[in-house]
Amino acid sequence: DPPMSGGHWTPGLVELAGGIPVLGNPGQNSRVLTWDEIRQANPDRVIVAPCGFNLERTREAVRELPELAGYSVHLVDGNAYVNRPGPRLVDTIEIFSELLHGQMRDVVQRN
User: 6: buried, middle or exposed (CB in 10 Å: 19+, 13-18, 0-12)?
Assistant: First the structure.
């Protein structure tokens, strides 16, 4: 908390995975969102991958957010897969695709 948009390369990863980053901020810094903005965007799915958070810490943080009730929420180890540029971003596209198309729930570590 506060909720933030996906910035920099994250919206592009969502698109490559077959999704539409309705609240993304492509090529720019993430920006703080309001819960009203999220409700108005009416996303089909919400991917939560905070900077510097592993999956366990993300789970703890999400428990404190009743605003996410009613959304299809997927948690990702943002520290390992989303928030660092590098070769693992290819894994992130695959992870996002699996999450968006219903093949997995949350991501801790992939082999």
Answer: buried
pTM of the predicted model, to two decimals?
0.86
Task: Please state, for a pLDDT cut of 70, what percent of the chain lies above it.
Answer: 92
- Give me the pLDDT at residue 111, please: 37
Query: Which of 51, 61, 44 has the alpha carbon at shortest distance from 29?
Result: 51
* Range in 48-52, 56-60, 84-88 with the lowest mean pLDDT: 84-88
Produce one character per residue of 83-105: b if its CB has 16 or more CB atoms within 10 Å, e if not.
Answer: beeeeebeebbbbbbbbbeeeee
What are phi and psi for residue 95, nearest 5 degrees? Answer: -60, -50
What's the CA gap between 21 and 24, in Å, rounded?
5
